[in-house]
Amino acid sequence: MPAPKTPDAHAAALAETARAAHTEVFGTEPEGVWAAPGRVNLIGEHTDYNDGFVMPFALPFYAAAAASRSQEWAFHSTHGGGDTVRTATLDGVEGWAAYLAGVAWALGESGYPVGPARIALHSDVPVGGGLSSSAALECAALIALADLYGHEIDRAEAARIAQKAENEYVGAPTGVLDQSASLLCEAGHVMFMDCRDLSREQVPFDLASEGLTMLVVDTRAPHRHADGEYAARRADCEEAARLLGVSHLRDAPADARLEDDRLDRRMRHVLTENERVKATVAILRGGAVAGIGELLTASHVSLRDDYEVSSVELDCAVDAALGAGALGARMTGGGFGGSAIALVEAEAAAKVEAAVVEAAAQAGLPEPRVFTARAAAGAHRVH
Description:
Blueprint: H1 7-26, E1 32-43, E2 53-69, E3 73-77, E4 83-87, H2 97-109, E5 117-123, H3 133-148, H4 155-170, H5 177-184, E6 189-194, E7 200-204, E8 212-218, H6 228-244, H7 261-285, H8 293-305, H9 312-323, E9 328-332, E10 339-345, H10 349-362, E11 369-373, E12 380-381
Parallel strand pairs: 3-5
Antiparallel strand pairs: 1-2, 1-12, 2-5, 2-6, 3-4, 6-7, 8-10, 8-11, 9-10
Helix pairs in contact: 2-3, 2-4, 3-4, 3-5, 4-5, 6-7, 7-8, 9-10
Domain GHMP kinase N-terminal: 99-184
Family: Belongs to the GHMP kinase family. GalK subfamily.
EC number: 2.7.1.6
């Protein structure tokens, strides 16, 4: 699945499909169409809810939301043949529509009330791949509703509002990484962000100029944030921080140790991952992208062994990529399935892709989807 060559044109094509769906389902033209991308996290995993550091970049795959003000709430998705949810209130909306209802609710809770709207969605962000398909839906809906109802919201604040929707309405205990990436990333850059204050730096990320390519491997093993394991990792971190007398593990001393082995390993991952993020930033500022490969691989080892969020499918993809000559590889996203990334020399991309697909076949795993990642533009109005 190659990435679109012209992300803006691609977003426009998706927006046209969303516009047509709005017109067909609701009988009226939308007042506008807004698009928000999925993301890949280069490095900095499970650090966001520990007030740590992350480095995402936006993918050129988008959720497009065609929207108009209305007398009722109505949500339509083109996914899976089409589904429409209509409701008089925002109470108790479930399934995919909960991400849209949750954003509307969170806007009101945050001092930005919005009235009813009709929203038609069309997205090509891979679902279940750990590439933030849900955050893309949330952020597209959020900027649509804000524009429709005349609210100017700082993008960093908007990310917090979208996170609130996912945490409190949907019930998934995610950090703020995904929404921030979808709203704040810039084309051609990876975003170094401090999740404590959301301060950020857009760091140039031009792989092609160095003869490199970033492959994304969607293992097709579903990635789910709302399950008990993700929540358990966050609870482990909160307990470790409590035992150390700090508000978040980001503040734990580098030489801190805990008697409980599980909590000690969770803490070790967070502390070492933050250091890997800072080391990655330093390398990228110097323009030597290839030098981050070892850090990517070290991140995967830490996530696999200390944080225990990898999976058979992810380990298979990472090991195969490295065995075929990748400069570095790691799982990306929350884990328990989803996607991996591999930094490769451009001329070796086809070889690495073939090795990953073959390794999955030999292990009896689903055939992965492999595509090229490029840093794309963040959320924006298309029409």
